[in-house]
Amino acid sequence: MLKKKKTEKKTEVYTLGQHISVSADKARRVIDQIRGHSYEETLMILELMPYRACYPIFKLVYSAAANASYIMTSNETNLVISKAEVNRGTTIKKLKPRARGRSYPIKKPTCHITIVMKDISLDDKYVEIDSLKKPRWKNKHTAVAYRDMYSSGGEGIWDKK
Fold first, then answer.
1. Coil/strand/helix, residue 29
2. In what order do the strands lie in the sheet with 12-20?
3. What is the DSSP code string of 83-145?
4. If residue 78 lies in a helix (H) or strand (E), which one and from where to where?
5. Per-residue confidence of the chain (161 residues) as pLDDT tens digits?
6. How far apart are CA 85 and CA 68, in angstroms?
7. 13, β-bridge pairs
8. What CA–CA distance (Å, rounded) separates 76 from 117?
């Protein structure tokens, strides 16, 4: 008896970058900033961050979005980075010649980066929450203007001789 295999629609797509020539700690510093954000927010964050590790991560996020649009035929506005992790890769070891016939080792660390994107339009668990997007402090506090004590007008502290 033949059974018909269930065809579940994928909701997650991943991209794996191996042997990226950045240390795992420096890449983790960038990955922690983008985890849980939407695709469009992630691209803006990565373009504005001043770290060298941003460019390979930017390429991986862009590749994961391309995979999602091809495999799941999903729109880029519905993509969210659900999981992003950095693992330590192999260390490239070289010897640098120094004075008097000595040599010093040069160690270049590498890392493996995995980025998993989820399409929230296909998943039932995600519901848009407006309270997280609006700042709650906007109407509670008003700006307080202090008198300028360094200006020449008025009776400031610095007017006395």
1. helix
2. 12-20, 103-119, 79-97
3. EEEEEEEEEEEEEEE-GGG-EEEEEEEEEEEEEEEEETTT-SS----HHHHS-TTTTT----P
4. none
5. 566 555 567 788 989 999 999 999 999 999 999 999 999 999 999 999 999 999 999 999 999 999 999 988 888 888 999 999 999 999 999 999 999 999 999 999 999 999 999 988 876 665 554 444 555 555 555 544 445 555 555 555 555 55
6. 18
7. 117
8. 10
Residue 38 φ/ψ, nearest 5 degrees: -75, 170
Residue the block writes with tokens 């039932």: 124
- Structure tokens given for 122: 């296909």
For residues 115 and 14, the answer to whether their CB atoms sit within 8 Å is: yes
Residue whose token pair is 């590498």: 110
Amino acid at 43: L
DSSP state, 5?
P
Can you read off the two tokens belonging to residue 127?
């519901």
Tokens standing for residue 67: 């995979």
Residue with tokens 């909701």: 11
Q: Measure the CA dihedral 82/116/34/70, to 10°.
A: -110
